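Weekly modeling sync, notes
Attendees: S.R. (lead), two postdocs, one rotation student

Agenda item 3: backlog of single-chain predictions. S.R. asked that every request posted to the team notebook include the full sequence so nobody has to chase files. The rotation student volunteered to paste the first one in as an example of the format we agreed on. Action items at the bottom.

Example entry:
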Amino acid sequence: QVQLVESGGGLVQPGGSLRLSCAASGFAFSTFGMRWFRQAPGKEREMVAWIESTGRNTDYTSSVKDRFTISRDNVNNMIYLQMNSLKPEDTAVYYCNTYDYWGQGTQVTVSS
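Predicted structure, as returned to the notebook:
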C-alpha cells in the first residue's frame, strides 16, 4: 500500500535551517508529482511546495519562495524540503502528499 513517511522536523531558532525528508513506497514514485503541505495551529492546511515527477519543475507558495527548496531522488523514492531562514510563522506540522495520500506529518517549531 502507499506509504509516505516524513522525518527531519524539530525545534530551530529563527534564521536557522532544517531539511525535511519523505520516504515514499507502494506506488510508481517516479511518475508522480509530489507536494509538501503544512498546517499551523488554528489554520487551514496550505500547500508549501510542489515538484513535478522528473524534478525539473517546481513551485512554491509566495511566503517561502527564495527560502525553501523542494527536491527529489527518484532512485531512492525520496523527496526533500530544505528550509532556510526560518521564521516563527513557519511553525507547523509539515506533510508529504501525492493525490489522496498523506504522511503522518513532522512538527517544525521555530522559536527562540
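Discussion: group reviewed the output briefly. The chain has a mean pLDDT of 97.
Action items: rotation student to repeat for the remaining queue; S.R. to check formatting next week.
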